[in-house]
Amino acid sequence: MNTPHQAPSDAAASAAPALGPDELDEIDTLLDDLRTRGEEIPQWEFCDGFLTALICTRRPIPPAEYLPMLLSDGAALDVPEGEPLPLLPAFADAAQQARFIELWMRRWNEVEAQLDAKVETLDDDRTFQPEAMDMRGAVASLTDEQRAEMGDDQEIPSFGQVWALGFMFAVENWPEDWAAPRDKEAARWLDDALDSIVALTEDDTGKPEVCMFNEDGPPSTSQARVEAFGEAIWAVYDLRQLWKSMGPRVETVRKAPEPGRNDLCPCGSGKKYKKCHGA
User: Fold this and answer.
1) What's the predicted TM-score (pTM) here?
2) Distance of alpha carbon 119 from alpha carbon 131, whole angstroms
3) Low-confidence winner among 20-29, 67-76, 92-101, 137-146 (lowest mean pLDDT)
4) Composition bias, kind Low complexity: at what positions (predicted)?
């Protein structure tokens, strides 16, 4: 059975509310279920970084191309534009896939609206807010008994690290769409923005000073990491504006040189070009 994948109309997009705590819990539960059929299914934080990169990518990448990269074997589906997607192997049924796409598009529209809003400070309520988790703060806030149940063999990612890895996963899998433009200033703008996001993929080795999970929780994140996270948010705005201003990459078509008027006509008639197709 097929499920539709077209983006909602502008009216539907504006009417669709942002994802609330209940919907975010639903997505986590849904991804957990997908993981029973596909071990490589990522966490929602990774998905959110991936989604954000797609919104910033120079070429609009269709769901038939990006959903298999995120949730399947990476092979793009041969689906004509506007046609419904076939059921991906990770989903239990068409209803589950349709629900995931519905929640995905609500988040997509929310991020798109935030990145297109004219904001000047990160304190603005309209500012883009990545779905980044302070896992170290969450673990540090657990009781000793709860931490003991988790075990000590799990490597806990830094604040924003999984989100940034999801963003760069999209960049790395569509290199042609993220290739530096010829304009040197634009290319430098692109490199600087990507460097800010790549910085979040690294481990936070600074002194823990704040807790991003709970303001009253034990310190889990360095102040330098918090500042780097803010720089990454502005970098996303820069990337969105850069590619919107440049538009999709235009492939130049080289025209074969036209024969001289006294040359033989390439049609094979044996006549001079000026007396044949060049007349």
Assistant:
1) 0.82
2) 19
3) 137-146
4) 7-18
d(CA 155, CA 164): 17
CB 253 within 8 A of CB 260: no
Return the domain boundaries, the chain: 21-77+85-246
Q: How far is CA 209 from CA 10, 140, 172, 212, in A?
A: 43, 13, 33, 10
User: How many angstroms separate the first and last alpha carbons of the chain?
Assistant: 58
Q: Given the structure tokens 């400070």, which residue do they identify?
A: 121
Q: How far is CA 141 from the centre of its chain?
A: 30
Q: From CA 10, how far away is CA 109, in angstroms rounded? A: 9
Q: Which amino acid is residue 237, in one-letter code? A: Y
| Contact in structure between 44 and 52 (CB atoms under 8 Å) | no
For residue 192 the two structure tokens come to 């600087």
Describe the crossing of helices 44-56 and 223-246 by its angle, rounded to 10 degrees: 40
Whether residue 99 is predicted with pLDDT greater than 70 in this model: the reply is yes
Residues 6+ apart with CB under 8 A from 8: 16, 105, 109
